[in-house]
Each structure stands twice: as structure tokens, then as C-alpha cells.
Design brief:
225 residues, mainly beta
Length: 225
């Protein structure tokens, strides 16, 4: 379903959430959280679109999350929601990002272009993000889990593509030298934080390690002051 980093199932507590990236827009994105058991709706800032969830028929059923043109019967399924997720509209209603927390400690990112009358999913967004993060994992190590405690749309720069920023809490553990069989346990991972930039619509992703005690490095051009 989703391409993941080398992943070890674990039940460790999340490390402290990293600080918000300094170059995020001062106004948070229009957003809403969704879960598999409760119906929720979020309108885009321009009221052209809405994203909403329809719970399953029983506790064990996945919910369905749809994007729809407001005041019409046209809708498109975004995802079957196993657990919970968060939708983020850009201020201009051009973009929709959906973070699907499909496992307790793992998430996938979906991106949609809403500039037309039909939502267009930007393919390979999640794969490109994971590939960029994989390149930053120290040699001989595995990601224990992937969690995104913060997301934002970057401050727009004249003539530059739209950029989203993800701050990732991704502890790492040493890769086993040999298979230890099903259900083996590895120690709790070492805290490891990454900052990921993704440009839209090409979904080109870059990642870099950073210290959450200090501001994440700024690479997105800031508007002239």
C-alpha cells in the first residue's frame, strides 16, 4: 500500500516533538483531524471543496474519506481510513495534504492538486518523502517508526514553487546482522529528527537531520522584506 522506510514494529513512546520550522507561514493551515469512527467535514478556504469522512458500518470497518465539490454530488475517495488522519488545505485552496496515520507509529503523506474541477493526486509524494528520509538514516541503522509531529506550508516566495515542510520524529535502531525470527524485539531507538521539504507539484523531496533544540535550517527563500 505504502512504501515504507526499513521499519521495525515497536511500542516505544514518541520522543519530544520538534520545534516548529521557523519559515512556516505565521497563519496555520486550514486543517481538521479525522478518525475511523466519527464523521467530520472540513471546507476549503474558498468554499469550493470539502473533505469529509463516512464511518464504517461497524467498529472493525475502515472509514471512507472523500473530497467533494461543494454543493454538488461529485465526490472522490481519498483513502480508506484505518485509524486517523489530518487534512491540510493551503490558503489559496490550490493544495490539499492528507496525513494518514494508518499505524500507531507510522504515517503516509498524500498530496492533491485542487486547481481544476477534479482533484488530481500527485503521484509518488509519499515514496519521494520516504526515499529522501532513507538517504539520511545512518549506515547500519533502521527507522524504528516514522511520525510527523509538525507540518506546514512554507512562506511563499515570488516565483518559487509551493513548498511544504514536515518535521519528522524517526528514532533509529541498529540493523540486525542476521534474522532473529518473527516477533523479535529490538531496543528502543536513538532519537533522530529530520526536516523534509517537498515542492509541489513535482513532489521533489529533500531531507536533513536537525537538532530539535535549535531552529530547523532554513533553505526555502523568504519573501523580500
Amino acid at each position: 500500500m505504502y512504501r515504507a522506510l526499513p521499519f521495525v514494529v515497536a511500542f516505544a513512546l514518541c520522543a519530544a516533538a520538534p520545534a516548529r520550522a521557523a519559515e512556516c507561514a505565521s497563519k496555520p493551515a486550514v486543517q481538521a483531524e479525522f478518525n475511523s469512527s466519527t464523521q467530520h467535514t472540513l471546507d476549503s478556504p474558498d468554499k469550493k471543496w470539502k473533505i469529509y469522512s463516512v464511518p464504517g458500518h461497524s467498529f472493525s470497518d475502515d472509514a471512507s474519506v472523500f473530497i467533494a465539490l461543494a454543493d454538488t454530488d461529485k465526490k472522490w475517495r481519498v483513502v480508506y481510513l484505518r485509524r486517523r488522519g489530518t487534512a491540510y488545505f493551503s490558503d489559496d485552496s490550490h493544495w490539499l495534504i492528507f496525513r494518514d496515520d494508518y499505524l500507531e507509529q507510522d504515517s503516509a503523506i498524500r498530496a492533491f492538486d485542487l486547481s481544476g474541477d477534479t482533484p488530481k493526486e500527485l503521484k509518488h509524494a509519499n515514496v519521494n518523502i520516504r526515499t529522501a528520509m532513507s538517504k539520511q538514516i545512518p549506515k547500519g541503522m533502521l527507522a524504528e517508526y516514522v511520525h510527523y509531529p509538525d507540518f506546514c506550508y512554507a512562506v511563499p516566495a515570488p516565483g518559487a514553487p509551493t513548498t511544504i515542510i514536515l518535521l519528522s520524529d524517526t528514532p533509529v535502531v541498529r540493523r540486525p546482522l542476521f534474522s532473529m525470527g518473527y516477533g523479535y524485539h529490538l531496543p528502543t531507538g536513538t532519537p533522530y529528527f529530520m526536516r523534509v521539504e517537498v515542492t509541489l507539484p513535482d513532489t521533489h523531496a529533500t531531507a536533513a537531520q536537525y537538532d530539535p533544540k535549535r531552529p530547523a535550517p532554513i533553505t526555502t527563500p523568504a519573501p523580500p522584506g
